[in-house]
Amino acid sequence: MAQKRRKNKKSKKLLSVVLFLVLFVAAGVVAYLVWDGYFRDDEREDEDSEVVDEVEEVEEGGKGAVEEEMIEKEPVVQYEGSDPNEAEGLTGVITYAAVNGDNLMIRVNIDQYLDGGSCELNLVQGGVKYSDSASINSVTTATCEGFNVPVSKLGSGNYQIIIRISSGDKTGTIKGEVNI
User: Fold this and answer.
1) What's the pLDDT tens digit per position in 54-105?
2) Could you count the other beta carbons within 10 Å of the beta carbon of residue 161?
3) Measured CA distances, 27 to 15, 17, 31, 84 (Å)
4) Is the residue at 100 inside a domain?
5) 116 in a structural domain
6) Distance CA 69, CA 48 (A)
7) Residues 145, 135: contact at Cβ < 8 Å?
């Protein structure tokens, strides 16, 4: 009878060890699959990733090596609010206003897509006023051609930038400031 108890204890102990090993291996397999991305949605991964080729300069032969790298893309929010093309007036932003060499360079992006039109620049400082005009370029977005104002025509100081844009029956004003 003592031998039977020892045999039962041994078989229970052996069963416990085997059960523990099976659970340990199963947990390892699940952890590997999670780490490897097995449970990811493949369609979503294709939409949120793109392959980008990077060319690295090799100092010695001047030839480049190409490496492929997966880059996660943020979802693009097209419009927050109403469509700017349906607005009654034109809007935009001054993207660059600074002295570069002998010229004050001013660049403007317009929020609406326009097929032609004009931009009128006014620089105002106290009683001093400088005016210029440029056409609206419309390749994929609308921008003013840009203004390159010779600094020699302006005095130093802080200028208010006022740009009136017009296209068809729509008009708008973009304001900013620049220090020369």
Assistant:
1) 444 444 445 555 455 555 656 555 556 777 777 788 888 899 999 999 999 9
2) 19
3) 18, 15, 6, 54
4) yes
5) yes
6) 13
7) yes
